[in-house]
Specification:
106 residues, mainly alpha, 6 helices, 0% strand
Length: 106
């Protein structure tokens, strides 16, 4: 499985987890502030490329981050999480069941 596929699943999970959405907005605002001349398409590409690592660093450095967010960051970034994502991708590709991702991740 390619790194790009794993990143796509991470982003799908993050974008469908209510508690992560404020972090997504914050990251996009941050990118717009530091890349003022970038058009929105480029900002979104940069967001997709950098959000996962930014999220992990932000959560682990935030004493107020919830247990859910810490667990999500730990699981998704661990080898076990990557194996789980690989299994999910194969399930989706085999059975065309994208809703499995949401149900598994809660």
């Amino acid at each position: 499985m390619t790194r790009q596929k794993v990143s796509q699943v991470h982003l799908y999970i993050f974008n469908n987890t209510q508690e992560v959405l404020p972090y997504i907005r914050t990251h996009k605002k941050y990118l717009i502030a530091i890349h003022q001349k970038m058009n929105m398409m480029k900002v979104l590409q940069e967001h997709n490329r950098t959000f996962i690592n930014w999220f992990k660093e932000t959560i682990f450095n935030d004493d107020n981050a919830s247990k859910t967010l810490r667990l999500l960051a730990q699981i998704l970034m661990s080898p076990l999480g990557r194996d789980m994502i690989s299994t999910i991708i194969h399930s989706i590709q085999s059975h065309k069941m994208i809703k499995v991702v949401c149900k598994i991740m809660g």
